Amino acid sequence: xxxxxxxxxxxxxxxxxxxxxxxxxxxxxxxxxxxxxxQMPLESRIIxxxxxxxxxxxxxxxxxxxxxxxxxxxxxxxDDLAAFLERLYxxxxxxxxxxxxxELAQLLRPDMIQAFYLSVSPDLFGSIADQLSKRGIATxxxxxxxEKPFGRDLASAKALNADLLxxxxxxxxxxxxxxxxxxxxxxxxxxRFANSLFEPLWNSTHIDxxxxxxxxxxxxxxRGGYYDRSGAMRxxxxxxxxxxxxxxxxxxxxxxxxxxxxxxxxxxxxxxGAVTPDNIVRGQYRDWNxxxxxxxxxxxxxxxxxSYVALKLAxxxxxxxxxxFYLRTGKRLRTRAxxxxxxxxxxxxxxxxxxxxxxxxxxxxxxxxxxxxTLRTTIKEPGPGGMRLKEVDMDMTFADAxxxxxxxxxxxxxLIMDVIRGDQTLFMRGDEVEAAWSWAxxxxxxxxxxxxxxxxxxxxxxxxxxxxxxxxxDGRRWRAIGA
Length: 483
Hints:
Elements: E1 11-16, H1 21-36, E2 45-50, H2 56-70, H3 78-85, E3 88-92, H4 101-107, E4 113-118, H5 125-134, E5 143-147, H6 154-165, E6 173-176, H7 183-193, E7 207-215, H8 224-249, H9 258-270, E8 280-286, H10 294-298, E9 308-314, E10 324-330, E11 337-344, E12 362-368, E13 372-380, E14 389-397, H11 398-401, H12 404-408, H13 411-421, H14 430-449, E15 455-458, H15 465-472
Parallel strand pairs: 1-2, 1-4, 2-3, 4-5, 5-6, 7-10, 8-15
Antiparallel strand pairs: 7-11, 8-9, 9-10, 11-12, 12-13, 13-14
Helix pairs in contact: 1-2, 1-13, 5-6, 6-14, 8-9, 8-14, 9-14
């Protein structure tokens, strides 16, 4: 199946921090792929902006090297690569000073869509936004893209929002969370709201519980300094997992329009009940079977920072009363896997003999590594000899069902094209970010005030034993990671 490519209008995209790791690994390869499939018009230009002193040719050589490293050889024909590099420019800009802004202004074309991607530290967001505004570079139609972290608590998130709103309207600000660009995450809305099969069942009458898992095989080595100041709650739960929870639990919006969708997501966060200490597990991986532990990887022997969090949450509204949401995320687990499991209630009266090991109906939405959807159903086992039941999976792996080209698209390239279109549906609004921090702050504050350390779990395992009890005491079980 070939994806239908809908070109966007010509644009000038300025990438601040264009020589950084995110630009090299994700942003520029994503733009190259969009160019190669014909979605990026030939008139469009990409302007790198950074403090490094280099020529345009040197920047293009650096981008060429990045594409050769992060784009497969069969996906970067030499003609396409050369044509893409011709659309690249570079300006040396001092984000906090005066140098380079006049040169940047001269490069930009007022008749084109203008977007500014701030792939820089959040402490530079305000100064760059101020410079774009006071120097007359930004227009009323300018789009500005900012990367997480959107603060480290409610106070800093509010300060960041205020910095941006001094120069830009909320309709111009695109707070990017790459999880929302994943094909399966976007399919959550299509699955629920475009199919009469599921939406009538999407409530506590029919759904027993929901599990959201984001497991990572890697540890924190190489980014221990950042991670030890953040931890799993700030790094993953408050943003990525919260977004997945919102999409699963939200009410149907009146229309598929950015603010209508985001209004419903905010309502979910505001409906989250208080989380008691017995419904939270914090863990930190320890060395095991030749793998290093968190203190070693983070360079912090006495660290009390969590590398694993599991929570039991309740959404206090009519739709979800009595249906718990279990969230977990962790580093150095047995494999890399992200999924949402919607587990349905058993029939009110089972007329067949009990089936050993029965797990029940479930809708499994896989985000990575193999994006797809699985529906677990119960059928009769083939053959004579009575009514023996068997559970089978009805599987749709996107790479198989929709073609490998769709599967290979990265979340960043989808989201950047949405920026150019002016579509904010998959981007977080300021009040949404602040609502998430309002929920997370009391939990983090309680941990920081507590003398208790996170419980230890073996590197390469499934997380702390205590997280298993979070479900066991409710008569439930976590799905095996990577099942």
